[in-house]
């Protein structure tokens, strides 16, 4: 009987510890505690009302220039664009315009495929191709990368870090590529944004409503007291809030 009770207690303890560990693994982890772990940056911890507007571009030439026109008209001088290699080569004048307007440029890969499905040598090859394409057109040697589809795992992060890249995700997703309606895009961004936020939008032709939504987003965020900075400026001036990749 004593042996049975011990076995039961041991089983209960093991179950409790397992459940506890599940909860702990899902808790937010501080940057200091995870410095050695692979991570992607979602936002930064800051009391300042600053956010980074980021735009992914992987195809099309109908939306990018109108987006740039909106930013110019609204006098937004700080934003970060993640460009794919093929798009940059196919639309060099627009890529150069982004650079000449002073916006930060990051890497969005070459083929728009999930990195986690491929080995490290494939990832290095793809990132190197897009890096060279962007540098050839704009003169920019990229240091930030947003993986296609935002897909990664610990191995992918380690591979990209070994290439000198910082992996950038987002905390607020506009879902503009789904074209849910202009007001829905505006509401998602303006109601979810927090200080230190990285906001995901697209300037690809798939995002058919971003040009109408963007002026409203900019106006409302400014009314809420926010200023716009690049991703690099966020990283340089605030404590990083990252997600450990499991």
From TrEMBL:
Molecular function as annotated in GO? hydrolase activity, acting on carbon-nitrogen (but not peptide) bonds
Q: What organism does the record attribute this protein to?
A: Alicyclobacillus acidoterrestris (strain ATCC 49025 / DSM 3922 / CIP 106132 / NCIMB 13137 / GD3B)
A Pfam family the protein falls into: Polysacc_deac_1
Segments traversing the membrane: none
An annotated GO cellular component of this protein is: membrane
Q: Name one GO biological process term.
A: carbohydrate metabolic process
Q: What is this protein called?
A: Polysaccharide deacetylase family sporulation protein PdaB
